[in-house]
């Protein structure tokens, strides 16, 4: 294996990636109902005692899975999501004033995140015109139709979960675990991908790659997965 190729790897140990996750930052997490959220990274956030997060994700997960664990442990102070109904603790904290929640329709939320990843300032929506959703929003007229401007969303750190990665950070997702992850991966100033399997250079079919490695800064392996570089396996035989 050429040394030049080895130097390009984005695969790191969990501790190296966790250096970038700090109290009070804005984080973004992929997944839907906890499926597709990175369990090892979320557990590491809990273990490290990270708190006071502004957290952007599709939903509040369940109390025992995904972002729901962070909510139960009161590590999130501000949640931006499409719904919280699957996590009773989120609703409880919101009504107690412990958790600030900003709701957006699921499609609007996805587009706000996508816009952030694409370098756009925001999107135009007509959902909510004539309701309290208008409060504080700028409006424009396009082709005689009134729209609200929804600012794009970005994060200090995005965390995503994928089925496979190569050392360059190219990602393939597994079925519905793909939900929100590609948008989230693009919208972080730093993006950490937790994966189930790391394959060798040039092993992924380019036509199957969903998230190009240019969006990924670090790749970590899910806890409990036994893995070695292909050339290390050759040494053992």
UniProtKB/TrEMBL annotation:
Pfam families: CoA_trans (PF01144). Coiled coil: none annotated. Keywords: Transferase. One of its GO terms (molecular function) is CoA-transferase activity. It comes from the Bacteria. The keyword Transferase applies. PANTHER family: ACETATE COA-TRANSFERASE SUBUNIT ALPHA (PTHR13707:SF60), KETOACID-COENZYME A TRANSFERASE (PTHR13707). This is CoA transferase subunit A.
